[in-house]
Amino acid sequence: MKHLLYCLLLLLSVAISARAHDPRYSSVILRLEATTLRISLVARVGKDVGLRQRLALEAEGKPVATEGESRIQDASNRTVLLDTHAAVLAPKQLTLTQRLFPEDPQSRTIVLLYSGDRLVQESVLDASHPRFVWSAQQAPEPSLSVVRRFVQEGVAHIFAGQDHILFVIALLLLGGSLRQLAKIITAFTLAHTVTLCLAATKTLTLSPAIVEPLIALSIVAVGVDNLLAKPGERDFRALMALGFGLIHGFGFAGALTEIGLPKEALGLSLGAFNIGVELGQLTIVLMVAPALALLTKRAPRAGRRALLAGTVTVILLGALWFFQRIS
Prior knowledge:
The chain is built from eight helices and ten strands. By secondary structure, it is of the alpha+beta class.
């Protein structure tokens, strides 16, 4: 039983070393115009030194020489934007031969290629897929490929977003019947699906400067509710999951903003991403809920200790993230 308790506490404490979203994302946005290729590079603050020199871009197999540079630093989401351009006339092929930060094996570079205002192609480069290639004659990405890619992105986002993991764990700490837990998770799923769709389609958006602190506060609120809850009283977790799930949906949409949704497969990619999020969430539930139930049944005292230790950890981490995000 001690090993089970240690595993549960370890699962809660993994969030200490990371912020809500993976800081290793960067972006390359390419815009094809009549005689010019406009290029925007986006990276987290601290990764802007020599950003333009990190662009390994080729047109027709030859290196692209960029001209001019403007830089904007956005303190609200801690990113730097660098704009440059190159004299490229109607290229037949563009190739990005590496990520912006290839020295970091965990880094990922999101590449978006536009022709005017139309999104032509997008890709996420990582250690296993380090190159972006576009050909003027290539066919649209197959539907199955879109689904596979966005399901993977949804799963990856859940496990990169420690605040979402901690919120789900906080909802599960009090345990309960299968019906109770199903109501809680279903409420959270329905809520974040609604705002994910609204935000991803730009029907309704909120600034990350508002969303991120509120997500942290949602974790604190569930933790406090766990401390105040008494056996036999009404269980408010489903209502909390429904209300705070709306906020978390905007957080999920932030990841999609970074990745970009293909306009020609908007519904398909959005649905696939949401499926990926749910698969990641279900994995967390299947890891935590049975372990807590077994611990409580076999060793009630250890179960109570796990609940108290886990709840305190949830509150402290949520409060820490909140103050980090408003500073």
